[in-house]
Amino acid sequence: MKDKLRVFHDGKGHTFVVMHMKHPGASSYVFYGDGKVLYRQQAPSASRNGEDFSFGIFDPRVSTLARSLFEVKAGKVSFVCDQTTTTLVELEPAAARALIEKAQFLDVYWMRSPVVLARDDRGMYYYVDRMRSRKDEMEQQSFRVFYGMRGKMRPLRMKNVVSDAKGQIFTTSQGELRLIVERGTTTEAGKEDQQTALWLQGQRRVRLTVVSVELPQTVVMIYRELGVYEGIRLNRPCERSLTRRRRTPAVRVGPAPLHPPYSSRPGVRFSAPRENRPEEWKRPQTRRSAEHDRLVRKVYNKVRSCPLCGREKQHCWCHCT
Q1: 139 in Cβ contact with 130 (< 8 Å)
Q2: Are 4 and 96 in contact (CB under 8 A)?
Q3: Which residue, 254, 251, 253, is CA-closest to 278?
Q4: pLDDT by residue (tens digit) across 203-252?
Q5: Which residues have C-beta within 8 Å of that of residue 104, sequence separation ≥ 6?
Q6: Between the ranges 72-81, 159-168, 272-281, 290-299, where is the mean pLDDT highest?
Q7: Parallel, antiparallel, or unpaired: how do β-strands 125-131 and 144-148 relate?
Q8: pTM for this one?
Q9: Which is nearest to 85 in space by CA: 76, 74, 95?
């Protein structure tokens, strides 16, 4: 079997080990990794045209298999991830055999799948996923519940899970937080009605809107926008292209903008140590009384011109009383 495998790489630590489509069961022998550890990839889509062939590799962060495509066409090898195309080069047979002998081949790395996604009228999301068993994918184990705004969801510690023909109940360690998902009833046409969900917190009951996790765009939103799996490696070929890069916040150099002298806050905030501040930066930092602030706000908010200097309020900087 190993003599039928071909090795491709991009020269930057990304290695594909695949089998030509002319061999039966080739879609089960698609591996990706760093050349030392290779993980099997799920390739539900495959095509062949003579010596040209392609594999559509499943990645939950892209909407279609065409956006995660390994392709050999007209002697050129490439991998398409979303809107990025990477050119690959095939290793020589001797080097490929040496890599295959030394590499460690492992099964699919990421085995979590979504169960329920719901939200309330305030935009708070409730998400449940589980670990799929390699022996029986319907086996229930390792449920997790996440809660929060989009991009800021956090996990809740699980205490108990109830699942039967009538629905599912996920209870957190606090005991009073429960997410109940009632299964839809079967109509005469044989179709299930939309599922309903409730979030119970003590005596408070919040009815939720269930979002179907069967839709590809919903799965993409879960992985790329909700923040549930942010920073977690899936060991898929699209890892580098889709990993979100955090920007380092800019550091202010020099003094911050001056506050108006009528403010009760300090007049200047410095980023430099006090002993290193220039003299022109230093200004008196006096705290004025609440009565003074009240009179100043009255003048600036209700009177168009200053009663002392006669200037318009946006040009008045005197201490009006």
Answers
A1: no
A2: no
A3: 254
A4: 888 889 999 998 999 999 999 999 999 888 899 998 877 764 444 444 44
A5: 36, 37, 38
A6: 72-81
A7: antiparallel
A8: 0.67
A9: 76
